[in-house]
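Inverse folding, one chain.
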């Protein structure tokens, strides 16, 4: 039996099925390590579903989802692009996410609004560094996953699920067995149906749209039949262990012959296991060679959840009213800001007013679009479960909750209060806001200057637009020099921003040297007191503050600073005064006593606050801030430097050169593993030593190595390095 996929048709046919039934919608993301084949897999999905007329190729720079100039030049994904298409009566909203660590936020905000994910692995490499990062992000959001072992055509491809078990601590459920390996990889055997799916590609240009489906029989290779038989038995036993309903069905109806269980019953059980996140279905193929993508699409619709199968407690309080989350903003030269919304309840219509709870503002949405990478189709309405693109929302930013009106928000707040009993007054909106996207702290910064003062306003506008699009980009003005400071997630991140300002806004900016975003902490526990006595006009303000600071958990990434009050104070302080005290402490956390870097890993105990009548909250904050600065100086400062987790894949002949270079960078080797003919070097290295590492690595290995970096921890600098840094910052070196 031969089968063929739908014939390609125009993108505007999306109008035909504007609002499918919610049970037929799949909001999924494709995530993986760099170069595992995410974008190529996405391109094949679009082609086989009939939404593109030609197969896009990352190397040729003609992919649909990588539509930015920088993405096509570099062959990497930078932004997460949303694509909508239909597959066998299901609507799939798919987001292709970056694999590079500099663009981790793009993955984070995509996963925040998705219901399921496809993790793509390079079959020759298994689980790599960035795979671990994105997998942890998916786990944090409790997202069911399907695994796709890509690049099965590579000579070193290894159909092994051991690395998924060991490194991801996941429970892989094997649904397919490959037929052939390396260049002889021709297809897969579906273990549920015992059918062989074979792609007989006559040339490199064959698109893989047509493939053969044939039931396994005795004429097939005996070794393959044995492997399939054992794998199917193992699959049935594994699913029975994970799903009680399926185990009961087996023991009741098929106790004599487990193999006789209908494939549909097995599929339903695997779906339950996947949704409960007890197991992860594993499929295989080669996207570049056009093999195995159609079964992956079938698996997405069969095993990943519909929006109504993911329970968001908060949404029930809105009932049929609109509730949506803004998860991405893009700027279009013609249409202005384009805001991506995930609709959780209700219906979205163009030419209507919406209320933004976070900004407490009402805006009018002019148009509603279905996102098709960089092409958009206008539609009259969109219902719950979908991802929409809106035009006209000028104040909305990433992480904002959008509702139909202020009255709808108030009604939802009342329902939330009734559900949870008497809530604290004044905090009612906290319950009805969708949790936004966690933005990591930047690790690099540099100055940015326009070519002339005449372009300063244009540069500020460009930076404001880019910050709305990318919340991990921070821009601040140095209070001493007045220079604009650009803060980002890595060298590549800042390089791409610089390039976008030139291409998209036509401004030739100059970047200063890259600098590392250090942190500061304290060494000792200290108690101190301070009094502020100031007369402003005819009003006298008098505050006395007593507090203690001590170091806690200084090395963790994003190590927080705590504020606590003594029991006596907790009951005495009025809410406004307490808020003023907290503001004073927080403001002092922004600039450390040594070099002015943000502080982390400090616990502050407010022991006493005495306030004369008529003293303003601003004066309370000022006194607390001054007292904190005094305490931090007395406690002794310590610079913390970001230390990166480094993974280098290199041929054995170049290993000694890479190790020698790492030794000069204050690197610590944790492990050296073997992967086929290569060595995988795992190390920790201070970020300050990694400037320009990609160029050096290319030189010492003749271009035969790859590496990935991830922020591991903040560690105390040794005294010698700290003194060198202090002198350099003081301009003495």
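Residues assigned per position:
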């Amino acid at each position: 039996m031969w089968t063929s996929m739908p014939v390609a048709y125009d993108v505007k046919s999306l109008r035909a099925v504007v609002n499918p039934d919610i049970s037929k919608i799949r909001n999924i993301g494709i995530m993986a390590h760099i170069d595992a084949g995410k974008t190529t897999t996405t391109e094949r999905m679009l082609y086989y579903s009939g939404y593109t007329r030609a197969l896009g190729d990352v190397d040729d720079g003609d992919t649909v989802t990588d539509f930015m100039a920088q993405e096509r030049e570099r062959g990497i994904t930078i932004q997460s692009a949303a694509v909508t298409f239909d597959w066998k009566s299901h609507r799939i909203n798919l987001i292709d996410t970056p694999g590079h660590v500099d663009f981790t936020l793009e993955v984070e905000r995509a996963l925040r609004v998705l219901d399921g994910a496809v993790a793509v692995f390079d079959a020759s490499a298994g689980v790599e560094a960035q795979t671990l990062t994105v997998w942890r992000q998916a786990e944090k959001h409790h997202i069911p996953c399907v695994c796709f072992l890509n690049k099965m055509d590579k000579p070193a491809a290894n159909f092994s699920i051991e690395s998924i078990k060991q490194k991801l601590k996941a429970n892989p459920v094997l649904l397919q067995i490959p037929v052939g390996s390396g260049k002889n990889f021709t297809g897969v055997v579906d273990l549920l149906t015992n059918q062989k799916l074979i792609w007989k590609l006559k040339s490199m240009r064959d698109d893989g749209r047509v493939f053969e489906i044939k039931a396994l029989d005795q004429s097939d290779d005996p070794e393959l039949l044995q492997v399939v038989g054992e794998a199917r038995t193992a699959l049935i036993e594994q699913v029975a262990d994970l799903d009680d309903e399926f185990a009961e069905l087996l023991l009741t109806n098929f106790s004599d012959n487990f193999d006789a269980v209908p494939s549909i019953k097995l599929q339903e059980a695997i779906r339950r296991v996947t949704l409960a996140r007890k197991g992860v279905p594993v499929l295989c193929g080669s996207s570049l060679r056009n093999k195995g993508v159609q079964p992956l699409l079938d698996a997405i619709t069969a095993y990943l959840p519909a929006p109504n199968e993911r329970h968001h407690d908060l949404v029930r309080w809105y009932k049929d009213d609109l509730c949506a989350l803004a998860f991405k903003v893009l700027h279009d030269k013609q249409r202005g800001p384009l805001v991506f919304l995930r609709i959780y309840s209700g219906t979205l219509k163009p030419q209507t007013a919406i209320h933004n709870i976070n900004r407490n503002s009402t805006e009018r949405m002019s148009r509603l679009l279905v996102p098709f990478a960089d092409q958009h189709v206008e539609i009259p309405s969109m219902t719950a479960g979908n991802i929409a693109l809106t035009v006209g929302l000028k104040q909305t930013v990433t992480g904002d909750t959008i509702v139909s009106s202020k009255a709808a928000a108030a009604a939802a707040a009342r329902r939330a209060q009734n559900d949870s009993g008497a809530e604290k007054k004044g905090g009612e909106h906290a319950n009805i806001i969708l949790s936004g996207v966690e933005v990591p702290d930047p690790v690099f910064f540099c100055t940015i200057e326009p070519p002339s003062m005449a372009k300063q306003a244009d540069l500020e506008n460009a930076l404001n637009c880019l910050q709305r699009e990318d919340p991990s980009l921070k821009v601040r003005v140095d209070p001493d020099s007045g220079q604009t400071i650009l803060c980002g997630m890595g060298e590549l991140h800042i390089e791409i921003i610089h390039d976008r300002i030139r291409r998209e806004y036509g401004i030739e900016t100059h970047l200063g040297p890259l600098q590392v975003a250090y942190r500061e902490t304290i060494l000792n526990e200290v108690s101190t007191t301070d009094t502020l006595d100031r007369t402003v006009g005819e009003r006298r303000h008098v505050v006395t503050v007593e507090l203690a600071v001590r170091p806690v958990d200084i090395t963790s990434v994003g190590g927080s600073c705590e504020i606590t009050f003594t029991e006596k104070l907790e009951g005495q302080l009025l809410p406004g005064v307490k808020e003023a005290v907290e503001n004073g402490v927080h403001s002092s956390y922004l600039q450390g006593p040594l070099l002015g870097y943000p502080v982390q890993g400090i616990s502050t105990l407010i022991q006493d606050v005495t306030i004369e009548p008529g003293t303003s909250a601003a004066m309370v904050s000022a006194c607390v801030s001054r007292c904190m600065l005094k305490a931090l100086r007395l406690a002794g400062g310590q610079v913390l430097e970001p230390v990166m987790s480094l993974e280098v894949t290199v041929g054995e002949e170049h290993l000694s050169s890479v190790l020698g270079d790492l030794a000069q960078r204050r690197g610590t080797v944790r492990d050296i593993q073997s992967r086929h003919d290569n060595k995988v070097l795992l190390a920790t290295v201070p970020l300050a030593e990694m400037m320009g590492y990609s160029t050096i690595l290319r030189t010492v290995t003749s271009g035969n190595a790859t590496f990935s970096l991830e922020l591991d921890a903040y560690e105390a600098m040794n005294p010698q390095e700290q003194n060198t840094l202090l002198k350099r910052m003081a301009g003495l070196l």
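The chain has 18 helices and 36 strands. The two ends are 76 Å apart (CA to CA).
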